Amino acid sequence: MDEISLLIGGKAGFGIDTSSLLIGRILNQLGFRIHIYRDYPSLIRGGHTFSIIRAAKEKIATHRNKVDFLLALNQDTVDFHKDTLKDNSIIIYDSDTVKSEGHIGVPVGKIIKEENASEIMRNSCIIGGFSKAAGIEWDVLEQAFRKNISREIEINLKVALRGFNEARKLLDIGKLEQEALPILTGNEAVSLGLINAGLKTYISYPMTPSSPILHYLASLSEKFSLKVIHPESEISVILMALGFAYAGEKVAVGTSGGGFCLMTEALSFSGMSELPIVIFLGQRPGPSTGLPTYSSQTELLFALHAGQGEFPRFIVAPGDPQEAYYWSGLALNIAWKYQIPAFILSDKNLSESVYSFDVNSIEEIKEEKPALWDRAGNYKRYLDTESGISALAFVPDKDAVIKVNSYEHDEFGITTEEPLLTKKMQDKRLRKEKYLKRELENYNTVKTYGNNDSAVTLLCWGSNKGVCVEAAKNLNLKVVQPLVLNPFPAEQLRKSLEGAKKIIDVESNATAQLAILMSRYGLKTDAKILKYDGRPFSLEELEEEIKKVVS
């Protein structure tokens, strides 16, 4: 088989996320490329949670509506997902609690009781049943279990084997003759990209979908000599981070929209004091708490305009783990080179979905050293230069007085309200964006995919890249994806859109924020496909919407 999709579901707290990752690793061992969409409510226990695992021969970054297998640990999974079934779909279910005639029932509850296993091992049992039904050999399953389960492995294997033996082989998905790739989430790719560019400190207050970065970097802290800190609030997070930057530590923070609201005053402090910082902003639906465990693309204009006053900032929105890895590292370099805040815009879909990751397809990003004081003369923290970039010195340097100031200030950092000096220093700060924009011309800040001769172009940003690229391939269209959103690559985008008779803007918000931003540069779209229910576009859904617009 070249492709297979399955859905596993149960109550929140049943370990569905862990199970879907294990299934993904099993299929990954067989040479498939993986994408896992994870859907869960904002409840610790109770409520319905599910994951859709898609495996294909080619690289994928979206899910399908229809699945080949439905793995049901409770009745809700069968009842809620009937629409995902094809005529030949196979349901593997817990026959002790679920009613579903004509499919494969596994007495999960009975097996768990007889083996004196914990309830969470129900997943191992149903995965065993799936593996048998899909024609996956037991040794492949056992290898994946031993490699990815760290506790109570033998009892997990006993339960899985009993589930395996209860099922029957219905098809053979086979093995692809291609090398298995690592699989990881978008958040993990961001984390590794930051480490590669020299991250020393990460500070965050937990908030979906950025929380996994905090946990992942904490797990790597000893290996990479990282400081990973969880303060009492988002205000503390960003102020502490700016303190680390003042001391010369490359630092990043992570948050979502509500947490970023609390950071905006300190963001302006970063702009005035020229302290570099990287802000990972994981988007989710608002206003206010909104849908805390779902996804949106609603913070583009917020990130662009947040904070009082005018100061330069860098904003990038990667669309897959490879871009997340590369551009997160570049964001850290840019923040420190230009001494500005840099944003990594993500969302729940990119952050928490699981993908096959091809590190060999990524250009290497090496850590860049910032401009450092040459120790000549008296140190001027805010020396006015042609580029606006002042040389850095860090405490405790006995030869330098290093002042940072949230007030307007002179080159030494001493407060001023003098009008000519105020204008001079504001011009100095804003001048950096001109040089940053010039540097970014050396990077591929706008990407194109698909049929370059198509009269129809899909315009997308962030996590919608994957579904747009696959839909365009199927419909013979072109895709244009701006990666950098500030400084806005207007000329590169204009060139990429040349020849398009119809430009269709695809966004996960209600107001078409990218289209609003483009309009400021005289760039217009002809149609919009907007989704703002917190869920991602499926491949079939987007193709159907495109056909409505094009016809």
Task: Describe the structure in your own words.
This protein has 551 residues and is an alpha/beta fold. It is built from 18 helices and 20 strands. Helix 5 packs antiparallel against helix 6. The longest helix is centred in the last third of the chain and has 22 residues. The chain is globular, with a radius of gyration of 25 Å.
How are the secondary structure elements laid out?
Blueprint: E1 3-11, H1 16-29, E2 33-39, E3 48-56, E4 67-72, H2 75-80, E5 85-94, E6 104-106, H3 108-114, H4 122-133, H5 138-148, H6 153-166, E7 183-185, H7 186-196, E8 201-204, H8 211-224, E9 227-229, H9 234-246, E10 251-256, H10 257-273, E11 277-283, H11 300-305, E12 314-316, H12 321-338, E13 341-347, H13 348-352, E14 354-356, H14 419-440, E15 446-450, E16 456-459, H15 465-475, E17 478-482, E18 484-486, H16 490-496, E19 502-507, H17 513-519, E20 527-530, H18 539-550
Parallel strand pairs: 1-4, 4-5, 5-6, 8-9, 8-10, 10-11, 11-13, 12-13, 16-17, 16-19, 19-20
Antiparallel strand pairs: 1-3, 2-3, 2-14, 7-14, 12-18, 15-17
Helix pairs in contact: 1-5, 4-6, 5-6, 7-8, 7-12, 9-10, 15-18
Question: Keywords, please?
Answer:
single chain, about 550 residues, alpha/beta, Pyruvate-ferredoxin Oxidoreductase, domain 3, Rossmann fold, 4 domains, 8-stranded mixed sheet, 7-stranded mixed sheet
